[in-house]
Automatic annotation (TrEMBL):
Residues 293-322 form the HTH psq-type domain. It comes from Anoxybacillus flavithermus. It comes from the Bacteria. GO terms for molecular function: DNA binding. This is HTH psq-type domain-containing protein. Pfam families: HTH_psq (PF05225), SEC-C (PF02810). Gene3D superfamilies: 3.10.450.50.
Amino acid sequence: MNKVARNALCPCGSGKKYKHCCGNNVVSIHKLIDQEVEQHMHDFIRYAAFEHESFLYQHTKLYIDQKERDEDVLMIFRFFISTWVMFFKKDIRGMTILDYYLSTIRKHHVRPSVLSILTSWKEAFPSFVQIDHMDGSFAFGTDLVTGETKQIKFLDENIDYDLELGHVITGIFVPHGQYTTCFSTFFPMPIVLSNAVRHFVQEHWEQCNKDRQQWIEQYPYIFQQSLSISLIDTDELSPKQQEVLNVLEQKANMDDVSAMDTARIVWRQYCRMKNPSIRKPEVYAAALHYLLIETVLQEEWMSQKQLAEMYGISASTLSKRIDDLYMALGDLALDLGDHLDELAEALGIDEGWDDYDDVWDDWDDDDWDDEDIFEVCEDCDEEE
């Protein structure tokens, strides 16, 4: 790049001389733009909360599950769905809150390059991105909805995003020049559930006929379901205990995401109760597989002998572990078939969304505070 003369107009578009603008600032023009765009994100949130409070509240509450009582879950959900409303919900004039916000900022002096980015927010898309590579404040990932490769730039360089290869994040993704960025923040799914989330997202994309507008309209429901999946108890398992789930996923080769989520719940319950010391993961994986066949995968019936052969263990050992699972889990395992609806609800995979509350009581003014909700040995177990 050629050096800019000190008395020339600043290339940032401010209208000032370079020496009185970017030439007098050790901060690069790119960092300046990032800072100003990030500030507009906060301003947009405050604008929506105070200038369109009634509209925002009325439309957000339509998506809140009246049976959800966990305040942490509600706070996360309110933030992300409020953001969705700000970008995509139109009033009787066909205007979104974003449209109104853009009409106000044009009345003020905004750097042209920044205004261009803000205007491009009309191309926002709520999605799920699986991280393929991290490099400081940049990430390269695959959009699990569209299959596109995204170059994500995180605007706050002071935050350690602690994302790993394979992590799935969701939120409202907006253009940022040649990059993409997350509006305000994102929600990271537990990495152990990345495969489940990927299958879940792609299944819903198919149900939306791969139509972007249908996907956008369904995102509040899809986000709530994914949030429920991500909040499945993720207590640390030992490497051997985790290997049981890995073996099950490899051997069973199930496309039914809900079945694997059920297996995770059952297995974590069992490990919490018994804390088994495992020498042969295939034994427990086969027992879990049989439990799923009995309760979830009824159309894929297999005998204990067939399962034992599939996992390379003896039928007698498998039978013992199956009995142990049922005994340890008690009513949860014995009555699993009768509780599938409850499990589906807990996992967010139930099909019915007709019970949403039309009235959201006890709404506190503090709920809209920008810095509050918008910060959003059993040695004989196995064969030798």
